[in-house]
Design brief:
Elements lengths: L4 E3 L3 H7 L9 H5 L3 E4 L4 E9 L7 E10 L17 E3 L10 H6 L1 E6 L1 E12 L2 E11 L5 E11 L12 E11 L2 H4 L4 E3 L7 H5 L6 H6 L9 E5 L39
Parallel strand pairs: 4-10, 5-10
Antiparallel strand pairs: 1-2, 1-7, 3-4, 6-9, 7-8, 8-12, 9-10, 10-11
């Protein structure tokens, strides 16, 4: 699964990467702070394409924000989104919660990289100690995760024109991890390569077989993984230090004993 990731790219870089016109960047994108510990229910950046209201055969690409945890349009309660942070590629075209979104509401979720936890042979209180890893593009580029989005109507808000009346939410598509990453975790987010952005986002394309062909696991060597501090395991922690590799001695900063303060003698 994909349950945490990092997102700190400047919106200006995303506009260039995904070929978005400056006027199609939602204000909330600019207001969203860098997040090195993105967790379910957080607001995240998404690239979407919507039909032009005036010209139904045309589409407009936008950079917007959505809540992580998909809430289907038919849901009675938005809390269902807490259980729908991931959608399995193997069943996404048939599952009621994802089928409609997969057909017409696909998105890209830009990330610096994502985290996975590996069960070590060490034990603590009888349970395996889990070592977090950060997985990112080896070339330092933007990770474009395949996602779906939904728009849920909040009936408690009478004014349908109000932003509060509509909840935009998303889920990350996952697949079986490639051999070099499978040793860490058996699942991984699906990536969309740059030459497939247009086809994946196009809301006018809905053939399941064609869409599934666009999704491929990362090629060998495309991603790199390295161990990071267990600090990322708590959503209370945030900051660029979370994606720093462990020191050469392998000791997690959380486990390193504090050095005594120096005493100055007069």
């Amino acid at each position: 699964m994909c349950g945490r990731y990092a997102s700190s790219r400047d919106p200006a870089d995303l506009v260039v990467e995904f070929e978005i016109e400056a006027g199609n960047v939602k204000e909330s994108v600019q207001e969203l702070p860098d997040n090195y510990n993105v967790a379910p229910t957080d607001q995240v950046i998404a690239v979407v394409e919507r039909k032009n209201r005036d010209e139904p055969d045309e589409v407009v690409r936008k950079l917007t924000t959505v809540k992580w945890g998909l809430v289907p349009s038919w849901a009675k309660d938005p809390s269902i989104g807490n259980r729908l942070i991931n959608a399995r590629m193997e069943t996404v075209a048939e599952k009621p919660a994802f089928k409609k979104a997969f057909a017409v509401r696909r998105c890209l979720l830009p990330a610096d990289g994502y985290y996975e936890w590996y069960e070590t042979e060490q034990k603590k209180n009888g349970k395996p100690v889990k070592q977090p890893y950060f997985i990112r593009p080896a070339d330092g580029g933007i990770l474009a995760m395949a996602g779906l989005y939904e728009i849920w109507r909040n009936q408690a808000v009478a004014d349908a024109d109000s932003d509060e009346a509509w909840l935009w939410s998303c889920t990350v598509l996952t697949t079986t991890a490639t051999d070099d990453l499978g040793r860490i975790h058996d699942r991984m987010p699906l990536l969309v390569e740059r030459d497939r952005y247009d086809a994946w986002l196009d809301p006018l394309s809905s053939d399941p077989d064609d869409l599934l062909e666009l999704l491929v696991p990362a090629a060998p060597g495309r991603l790199e993984a390295y161990a990071v501090s267990k600090a990322v395991s708590s959503v209370k922690n945030n900051g660029p230090h979370l994606v720093d590799p462990l020191p050469l001695d392998g000791i997690d900063p959380l486990d390193r004993p504090e050095e005594p303060e120096e005493t100055t003698l007069f």
